[in-house]
Write a structure and sequence with these properties.
The complex is a heterodimer. By secondary structure, chain A is an alpha+beta fold. Chain A has two domains: 74 residues, Beta-grasp domain (Ubiquitin-like (UB roll), Roll); 66 residues, DNA polymerase, domain 1. In chain A, 32% of the residues lie in helices and 16% in strands. In chain A, β3 and β4 form a beta hairpin. Chain A is globular. Chain B is of the alpha+beta class. In chain B, α10 runs antiparallel to α11 and α11 packs antiparallel against α12. The N and C termini of chain B lie far apart (50 Å). Classes of the chains: A alpha+beta, B alpha+beta. The interface between A and B is medium-sized, with 30 and 29 residues.
């Protein structure tokens, strides 16, 4: 076991983790934030996407110990003061979810994109979301939601 | 998940010392996008691995630069960094394109070019452009540094000559400044698909004629290599679609010559010819309407 300190959703956390733990397991099981989902477990579906120091990553492929001292944002960190993030609101407004399992991952990929590129083109959005699979809603509404969110005030 | 002790050195010296101390029981962890999956499979193939050496916190391994006529890429440069590096965009655009075609954004943010080279998968996207660039790799250990051509480093599918105490630290090549390059990949879908086949091609045009050419197909041979028999067909000629189609066939002929006729040849032969011809057309700026 090793001690792991990092910033999770703007708050410092310190947890004991196994050396071989995945970031996904620490977020869900140790810290109890179950918004981040495990889909494929091999980096193909994007359901486990979180943001580490500004980059969208698959938390199922990341050794937890690698985030030592880094800033991690999960879907729970999007809403501020009880208000949904503009991306979350746009997803609701555009009916861009059905079962919702892929939604947290989509939101985090889209969030990482807008943080780096506030006004992406449709093509840039498609590239940013290509690593997130959805098996029920389809992608068109997601793309519309991100385009719309980019136009809204933060 | 297989158990291991996690090590996170902050300097290359420290990393090399760890590799020396635990040689045979330690594995470097670059991006981890392959190794984490293998470790979780826990099927005994990595059973001798007691230590994971995470290289992500070593700034010396991530730089990309072009100095005195040589481009160097740190082994821990991510595919995202390679894809967007202005140095690589101008020195070897086909390498940027190859990195851009790897996985999806989440994978490109962590997976590295050094990991791609060391895994030496037949379908590795960056191996074709690196072979086309006649790239060299630098291997370092506590006992010294050696540099060798990529073609000598990779000896077969998944096989390299790296020693248990060595780390691949850098990839270097002479920039193809002024050349026109292309990378074409055939996969089942655009994102997150490994290459079924790919090709990196580069052309140097002088006075409307081809003065230099590099063609390196991927997923075709056990280890990456240029196809000189096909390259020679183009030297001194004017670029044309017909010429490039003939060249594509020559690359397919070479594939059959090296690997023999297989059940898949009926598909691979025309597919490889087509992507070679397409890559050359893109590089030369010739419109290649579907035939």
């Amino acid at each position: 076991m090793s001690e792991l300190k990092f910033i999770l959703n703007d708050k410092p956390v310190c947890v004991e983790v196994e050396d071989n733990a995945r970031l996904l397991d620490v977020i869900r099981d140790t810290l109890g934030l179950t918004g981040t989902k495990e889909g494929c477990g091999v980096g193909e579906c994007g359901a486990c996407t979180v943001i580490v120091d500004g980059d969208a990553v698959n938390s199922c492929l990341m050794p937890a110990m690698r985030v030592m001292g880094k800033c991690v944002t999960t879907v729970e960190g999007l809403a501020k003061d009880g208000r949904l993030d503009r991306l979350q609101q746009a997803v609701l407004d555009h009916h861009a979810l059905q079962c919702g399992f892929c939604t947290p991952g989509f939101l985090m990929s889209a969030k990482a994109l807008l943080d780096k590129n506030p006004h992406p083109t449709r093509e840039e959005i498609k590239v940013a979301l290509a690593g997130n699979l959805c098996r029920c809603t389809g992608y068109e509404q997601m793309i519309e939601a991100v385009l719309d969110a980019a136009e809204r005030e933060e | 998940m297989q158990r291991f002790t996690y090590l996170s050195p902050k300097t290359l010296t420290e990393a090399l010392e760890r590799m020396q101390t635990y040689a045979g029981r330690i594995r470097p962890l670059a991006g981890g996008t392959d190794l984490m999956v293998e470790l979780r499979r826990d099927d005994g193939t990595l059973s001798g691995m007691d230590y994971a050496l995470d290289l992500t916190d070593i700034p010396e391994l991530t730089g990309i630069s072009n100095q005195s006529g040589r481009v160097t890429v740190g082994a821990m440069a991510t595919h995202d960094a390679v894809a967007h590096s202005s140095v690589i965009r101008s020195a070897a655009d086909m390498l940027s394109e190859a990195s851009l075609s790897v996985g999806a954004q989440q994978i490109r943010n962590v997976a590295t070019i050094g990991g791609n080279v060391c895994n030496a998968a037949v379908a590795a996207d960056t191996l074709s452009p690196l072979a086309a660039l006649d790239a060299d790799v630098t291997l370092q250990s506590v006992s010294g540094t050696r540099e060798l051509p990529l073609a000598d480093f990779i000896t077969g599918a998944g096989k390299t000559v790296i020693r248990p105490d060595e780390l691949l630290t850098q990839i270097a090549f002479v920039p193809l400044t002024g050349w026109h390059t292309a990378f074409v990949k055939l996969g089942r879908r655009k994102a997150l698909a490994i290459s079924r086949m790919n090709v990196a091609a580069a052309l140097k045009l002088e006075g409307g004629r081809i003065a230099g050419v590099r063609i390196s197909p991927g997923c075709v041979f056990a280890s990456p290599r240029r196809v000189s028999a096909a390259e020679e067909l183009l030297l001194g000629s004017k670029p044309s679609k017909e010429l490039f189609e003939r060249c594509g066939k020559a690359v397919s002929e070479e594939m059959v010559k090296i690997t023999g006729v297989r059940w898949s040849t009926e598909y691979k032969y025309p597919a490889l010819s087509a992507i070679v011809s397409r890559a050359l057309c893109i590089a030369a700026g010739i419109p290649e309407e579907a035939t």
